[in-house]
Amino acid sequence: DIQMTQSPHSLSASLGETVSIECLASEGISNYVAWYQQKPGKSPQLLIYYVSSLQDGVPSRFSGSGSGTQFSLKISNMQPEDEGVYYCQQGYKYPLTFGSGTKLEIK
Amino acid sequence: EVQLVESGGGLVQPGKSLELSCAASGFTFSDYYMAWVRQVPKKGLEWVATISTSGTTTYYPDSVRGRFTISRDNAKSSLYLQMNSLKSEDTATYYCARRVRNNYAHLAYWGQGTLVTVSS
């Protein structure tokens, strides 16, 4: 199985700050990585798929990059509504696997 | 508007069975691969099953293969998950989800989830 190692486990950021979350795949996954945001008591929401494609309705301050085994999600101009847990996911090979999550809070 | 509404969760004893349902609307159900994903309370996400558009191809992780069966009824725009021989470690919220596009195994739409508790 492909392991998705996310870092950091948690972080706090000030409003307006830019933050990055990293995801390392245990083997090459081409560009088949997605990022999700989950708020307490809610279902996950797709933010980015295929490395850098922005899902409909997602603000442009979210962006994705990377290739091969190293990927990152960048949130520019941190907003209060960006608090939540973020997960990466590989869609390259079954079984589909998720990272362990990164909790993002407002400082 | 895409909507996915799960039902069928509840309390079940270890070793017993339960079937979850997911009613889909707002898109052409038969055009999309569908999946189930679960989440242990306050823990991470675990993919449980995927089914092709026609229902002829299914995928499972080792943790549920042989015990869980995903199926669909395109005429009813409904997705199902039959869960047999349930274990305590199957306790989780189960989400029904739709792929963003069929050539990407990323999940664009999720239901609100249904809680399954396996306990005696």
Can you offer a commentary on this structure?
The complex is a heterodimer of chains A (107) and B (120). By secondary structure, chain A is mainly β. In chain A, 0% of the residues lie in helices and 50% in strands. In chain A, the strands form two sheets. In chain A, strands 2, 4, 5, 6, 9, 10 and 11 form a seven-stranded mixed β-sheet that branches. Chain A has a four-stranded antiparallel β-sheet with strand order 1-3-8-7, with no helix packed on it. The radius of gyration of chain A is 13 Å and the shape is globular. Chain B is built from no helices and eleven strands. Chain B has strands at residues 3-7, 10-12, 18-25, 34-39, 45-51, 58-59, 68-73, 78-83, 92-101, 104-110, 114-118. In chain B, a hairpin with a 2-residue loop joins strand 9 and strand 10 (104-110). Chain B is globular, with a radius of gyration of 13 Å. The model of chain B has no long low-confidence stretch (mean pLDDT 97). The chains are: A mainly beta (107), B mainly beta (120). Chain A binds chain B through residues 1, 32, 34, 36, 43-46, 49-50, 55, 87, 89, 91-92, 94-101, and chain B through 35, 37, 44-47, 50, 59-62, 95, 100, 104-113.
Element layout with pairings:
The complex is a heterodimer of chains A (107) and B (120).
Chain A lengths: L3 E4 L2 E4 L5 E7 L7 E6 L6 E5 L3 E2 L7 E6 L2 E6 L8 E7 L6 E2 L3 E5 L1
Parallel strand pairs in A: 2-11
Antiparallel strand pairs in A: 1-3, 3-8, 4-5, 4-9, 5-6, 7-8, 9-10, 9-11
Chain B lengths: L2 E5 L2 E3 L5 E8 L8 E6 L5 E7 L6 E2 L8 E6 L4 E6 L8 E10 L2 E7 L3 E5 L2
Parallel strand pairs in B: 2-11
Antiparallel strand pairs in B: 1-3, 3-8, 4-5, 4-9, 5-6, 7-8, 9-10, 9-11
Short key terms for the protein model shown above:
heterodimer; A: 107 residues; mainly beta; 7-stranded mixed β-sheet; 4-stranded antiparallel β-sheet; B: 120 residues; 0% helix
Mean pLDDT over the full residue set of chain B: 97
Shape of chain A: globular
Task: List unreliable stretches of 5+ residues of chain A.
Answer: none
Shape of chain B: globular
Radius of gyration of chain B equals 13 Å
Structural class of chain B: mainly beta
User: How much of the residues of chain A is beta strand, in percent?
Assistant: over 45%
Q: Mean pLDDT score of chain A, rounded?
A: 97
Uncertain ranges of chain B: none
Number of helices of chain A: 0
